[in-house]
Amino acid sequence: MSTAHPPASAADSSLVSTGPLLQVSDLAKHFPITRGIVLARTVGAVKAVDGVSFEVHRGETLGIVGETGSGKSTTARLVMRLLDATSGQVRFEGRNITRLRGAPLKAVRREMQMIFQDPYSSLNPRKTVGSIVAEPFVIHGLERDRAQRRRRVQGLLETVGMSPEHYNRYPHEFSGGQRQRIGVARALALEPKLLVADEPVSALDVSIQAQVLNLLRDLQRRLGLTLLFISHDLSVVRYMCDRIAVMLEGKIVELGPVEQIFSAPTHPYTRELLASVPGVRADRRTIHG
Amino acid sequence: MSAAAEPLLRVEDLRVQFPTEDGVVHAVDGVSYQLAAGATLGIVGESGSGKSVASLTTIGLTRTQGARISGRILLQGQDLLALSERRLRQVRGNEVAMIFQDPLSSLHPFFKVGAQIAEAIRAHRDCSRAQARRRAVELLELVGIPEAQRRAGAYPHEFSGGMRQRAMIAMALANEPKLLIADEPTTALDVTVQAQILALLRRLQGELGMAIVIITHDLGVVAEMAQEIAVMYAGRIVEMAPAEAIFARPEHPYTWGLLRSIPTLQAPREQALVPIGGTPPSLISPPSGCHFHPRCAYAQPDHARIDPGLEPVAGERGHTVACLLSGEERRRIWSQLRGAQGESSA
């Protein structure tokens, strides 16, 4: 097995199914609001995600954009099965995974991996880079041969533009951008079909942000990855995505190809978002003249 | 500049160093600028560029941290660095006020918002509690908080992020400062709320005639707010110019790097971002010569030796740059970089 994604896996999946990789239908997550400490009773619910439907096709990048509390991160966590849905369905390769538990869930989790926002808290400071990236192999009982595992991890580090010599170093020795690369290497370890990135660059400085965005864009094209990309930043989403879903108060208010969303938005909220981006208003000067 | 046109704020060769166990951190390394009354200066830089330390020092907030500070910070001719702590307290919150990135940690959680604003007023004015309280409600109205009378009696946690930032601005404006320092005032906010806060700052500046120093990593924000922009790198200003010139005719390779590495809503989607290579410099042992040379694609061998100062750009008013490349070379490189962008957008 090569370190990069073998073309074989793409061929396999096309044999299995040609439908969308991910189908989300009428998905909802309500968090109960309780009163009383001893005898807690439910007095209402926060509808964090409230009837969301979308599809992600193989090899495409779907962006979910929204502001704080719009439900975009909850949606990502529902898709990843890190949260249990209140109602609705998540189908992965045509299979309903909404209520999977135990071994079948673990098997599905190999196919979808997540990149988190904060590269400082998402890497264990007491583990070496090598053992962080190798962790998915350990969890899933793969690559048991030590030398082989080490070669795989070093290959992954190279894939994300880091030196294989970084294997024995610790996360604190790296800058934010490099840490995010380590997180990407870990996410790629199991050659997932779906990568879910939740605000992967919002904790990074601007000059570093471009490195990580280019890495993800490049990997997506080179490895044929399917990407669900969550961000509050419209310019970043525009750069990264093929299609965009705009979320507001737990619902998708607009979904379409990126050109359409940015040149002919139909929902008033999308228009408001676009008008709010600093430096681009027609009546003021703009970046890049 | 003649004495008659003495600017509101004049910072001269400001240096701030922090001794640490690992060595001396040169957080601010010779920064000079001036600001006219009512004008807006944007200071742009990444983490560790010294942009926040320079501004905190202006209002004396680095004094207690064992910092070694030199240079002069002249506010209407008065050197703030030479003031006693007691005298500085009279200036701070009165002639100069500051707003911070995180309004929740800048407001006291136990006290009502109105009472906190009233306290800021009574710290500098001789007035009754009732008068201060009425003024606090007026200020909350001024910054666009609906039902100000009722909201003055609420606690900070009852406010949304945008409302808290409005309350912070109200507190900063309590004594009608001549200078407002805004350190990443909208970074923690959603984009629609950010647009409201920036519009609010612009409106208040027009109404009250105060000068603003806005510190941010976001070029879009300074494009909206500032007439003049200073770009900081490794504790120094590397380029300073009228805002329009920074975007249209940037001179410093680091400024080029910033402009080419951020995604915008206008650039063609297929045009790849160009990241700045390398990593941010250590402020304990900054690179020799031009501090940017290890990350600069155009560095010559002697740039590791010679330390450039800010020099005026030929033919441009108020545009200075600290770069060892000749003006001719810089113009040639930027027109190439820009041409590459122009072609793909055409």
Offer a quick outline of the entry:
Chain A has 289 residues and is of the alpha/beta class. Chain A has helices at 7-16, 72-79, 102-109, 129-139, 146-159, 176-188, 206-223, 234-240, 258-263, 268-276, and strands at 22-35, 41-56, 61-65, 87-92, 95-96, 112-115, 194-198, 226-231, 243-248, 251-257.
Low-confidence stretches of chain A: 1-15, 280-286
- The CATH class name of the largest domain in chain B reads Alpha Beta
Characterize the overall form of chain A. Answer: globular
Large-scale geometry of chain B: globular
Whole-number radius of gyration of chain B? 21 Å
Question: How are the strands ordered across the major sheet of chain A?
Answer: 6-7-8-3-9-10
What is the helix/strand order of chain B?
EEEHEEHEHHHHHEHEHEEHHEEH
Q: Level of helix content of chain B?
A: 25-40%
Polypeptide structure, described:
The complex is a heterodimer of chains A (289) and B (346). Chain A is an alpha/beta fold and 289 residues long. Chain A folds into 2 domains: 48-111 and 192-278, Rossmann fold; 119-185, no CATH class. Helix content of chain A is 36%, strand content 25%. Chain A contains 10 helices and 10 strands. In chain A, the strands form 2 sheets. In chain A, strands 6-7-8-3-9-10 form a 6-stranded mixed beta sheet, with helices on both faces. Chain A has a 4-stranded antiparallel beta sheet with strand order 2-1-4-5. The radius of gyration of chain A is 20 Å and the shape is globular. Chain B has 346 residues and is α/β, with parallel strands linked by helices. Chain B has 12 helices and 12 strands. Chain B has helices at residues 51-58, 85-91, 103-106, 113-122, 129-142, 148-151, 161-172, 191-208, 219-225, 243-248, 253-261, 327-345; strands spanning 9-20, 23-35, 40-44, 68-75, 78-79, 96-99, 179-183, 211-216, 228-233, 236-242, 311-312, 320-321. The longest helix of chain B has 19 residues, at 327-345. In chain B, 47% of the residues are buried. The model of chain B has no long low-confidence stretch (mean pLDDT 90). The chains are: A alpha/beta (289), B alpha/beta (346). The interface between A and B is large, with 40 and 40 residues.
